[in-house]
Structures are given as structure tokens and as C-alpha cells.
Amino acid sequence: MARVSKQKQQEIRRSIILTAVEMFSSNGFESTTMKQIAREVGIGDATIYKYFSSKDKLILAYYGLRADDAVQLFLQEPELESFSLQEKLQLLIDIYLEAVLPDREFVAESLEKIMQSPSILFDDVAPVRKEFVGVIEDLLTEAEAAGEISKSSFTGYTAKLTNDFILAVLLYWIKDDSDEFSNTTQLVDMTLSLGIEILKTGIVSKVTDLVSFFVKAHLFRFMGSGFLNKMILSKTFSR
Predict the structure, then answer these.
(1) Assigned CATH topology for domain 1-53
(2) Looking only at Cα atoms, what is the longest distance across the chain?
(3) Would you kindly state where each structural domain of the chain is located, as residue ranges?
(4) Whole-model pTM?
(5) pLDDT in tens, 100-109
(6) Are 192 and 90 in contact (CB under 8 A)?
(7) CATH number for the segment(s) 61-201
(8) Is 198 helix (H, G, I), strand (E, B) or coil?
(9) Which tens digit of pLDDT belongs to each residue from 47-74?
């Protein structure tokens, strides 16, 4: 039996995900079986489980697939280097929303399932909540190097918060019934503007430095006064 190449595996994986989304949308999640999806794709009933162990995994894989597509399109933007940080983040969000637009009904239903299902939320939420962290961190690092925003020791954490913001935008967008989703566009524009201004001031690092100063100052003072030793001895002999 011929070995399936990596490229072919990726093609089959993509086909399984998109076929599943179509079937979930037309037949319902509960009414669609893994066997039906496999046969629609044209693979063996058992073969599909080599790619996905359950329908829940297929839901999460959809968001990863659309995120990958969005990142690829984003990085192919010819004028990307000339964009500001806010423009880059706005573009990334716009491309992502455009990517999921054809499946908006499925997105609404699946997000509701993700938020309500402990088995998905607690075990597998990472692929959904960490879709863009890598590319966002790169954008923040580049902006810091260019002097567009202040340098920070918490760039990775800021990237994660920004990624969570994208998830929040997605949830807002699902409920947005304004013309051409103008409310979502306005929300993103105002929020990103505020966020960039905060990053420019370096207030995050300043607050962190302040907290660090107080912790260290008081810790050393307590150590010098023997306070910590007294606390430890007190707890030890009170047992």
C-alpha cells in the first residue's frame, strides 16, 4: 500500500474539515456522523479517525484552519511593511473575519457549543485561544524595535491578550446585525487605537516595575528585620 505524502495528508485533512462544516450546517451537528463525513470525502470509515478522533476535534480544527489561511493571506500583503501596528492588527482581524464569513451560521453554533461544553472548553480550548499569538508577538516585537511602541518585558503576554481580543471580536461579530458589520469595524478601530496608545506610553512596563519595586523593597526590609524568620519560626512551632 502506497504511503500518503505529507502534502496529500494536508489536502485530505482540509477536505475533511470543510466537508464536516458543510454537513454540520446542512444536517446538524448531532445528526452528522464521522462515517458520513468519511464517505462524503471519499476515504475509509476508519481512516478519518487517523486525522480526527471526534466531531469536537473537527470543530476546533476548523478555527485553526481558518487562522492558518488568514495568516498566510496576511503575510502576503505587499504593502505590509509600510503599515502601522494598528493597521496590521486591523488587517489581520479583517482577513480572519472574511475567512469565516461564508460559514457564519456554523461559527455561531460552534462557538456556542465550545463555550458551553466543558469537554471542549477545558481540554482543547488552547487551539482556539492561541490562533494568532505567534504572528502578533512578531508584530509587537517589530513595533518595539522601530520605536512605534515602548519596549516591554511582557510582549508575549500582550500578544496573548491581543489574541483573546480577536476571539472577543469574533463573538461580537457573530451578533452584529449592522450594515456590513460596521459596528464591529468601529469597535475594533476604537479598541485598537486605545490599546496602541497604552503601549506607546509604556504604562504596562511602568506599572510592572512599580509593583516589582514594592515587592523587592518590602521583601528585603522584612528579611533584614528578621520578620520572615519570625513568621517561619512561628508557623513551625505552632504546628
Answers:
(1) Arc Repressor Mutant, subunit A (1.10.10)
(2) 75
(3) 1-53, 61-201, 207-239
(4) 0.80
(5) 999 999 999 9
(6) yes
(7) 1.10.357.10
(8) helix
(9) 999 999 999 899 989 998 999 999 999 9
